[in-house]
Give the backbone structure.
Amino acid sequence: MKSTEKDAGELEEIGDTQLDEQTVTPDTQLNSENMDGDAKKTQIYSSNNRLRHAGYLKYVSLVVLTIQNAALGLSMRYARTRDVVMFSSAAAVFMAEIFKLLICILLVIKESGNVVKGFHTMYATVVLNIKDTLRVCVPSLLYVVQNNLLYVSASNLDAATYQVTYQLKLLTTAFFAVIVLKRKLKRWQWCALGILAGGVALVQLSSAAKETTANSQDQSKVIGFSAALAACFISGFAGIYFEKVLKESDISVWMRNVQLSLLSLPFAALTYLLKDPARDLLKGFDGFVWYLVILQAAGGLIVAVVVKYADNILKGFATSVAIVISCVASMYIFDFHLTVQFALGTVLVIGSIFLYGYVPKKKEPRTSLSV
């Protein structure tokens, strides 16, 4: 998009130059100057509108991401503890991938301008360039495994503990960024990762110390934490791998997500067949489960919008607010009892998110006029 806008600007400049060369009378010169002035005003007005639109999208996407993060953890926990016919988590992951694919196809069509161009672009990118498409096989498989593990974690951990523990993905993402992308972390980022690990440890110790309730006899804190930890490692590696693929090509994010979802569907279907071979695909799917499927499908797309229009600090703020919402809501929905140890661990996790995303202000260069 940036190169297109640049090319368009260069064409406008060439057109203006040719127009000036052809004009010979004072009247036409005056009209040309007036047109240039109007064009500049229009350009400034259009630029201001784009900035306002981007600012609006930034805060709207952050609010939506906050609500989605909090709602997903709470909804997954509630869906797995209801006294109803239980749905297959593997089937829910499979259906979420279908919805995600449909949403991405619509976004690619919108980017292309019309349906015909959209499908032509997808055919050229996904089918004709099959070698590039197969590059996302690794993250597509990993994301399917990760989403299934998150259901296991939500089934065994309360929503607040699950939400805090899953923030360990920041630690694993940083680890793989250093190993795979050779990225260098700042001192405060290493400090933030240490604080994050300590905060999650406090939360887990607090959770393990609580007495088991009647409705949690079939749940295992060890299994829940292990599933969340495995999901964090998978999320970290898959995210860094996908980032590497995105940076090595000029294919749009939405087109990459089309490739990702197309390749995820076979893996999700195979996981369902291996895990629940005798179960009807949509058994146990009621209105709440369909809502959960759509919520999960929209999660990755919302993050993509936030990354495009916002920054890491604001994204961290959204994540932190989501943790607070989950903790407060769990007290009323799941009879969750907040302890001092859990609260301290949560504060450390939230603080580590902000510290990791901290970007120091660059010092202004001193000039000869500076005092």
Q: What stands out?
A: Residues 1-35, 211-215, 367-371 have pLDDT under 50 and may be disordered.
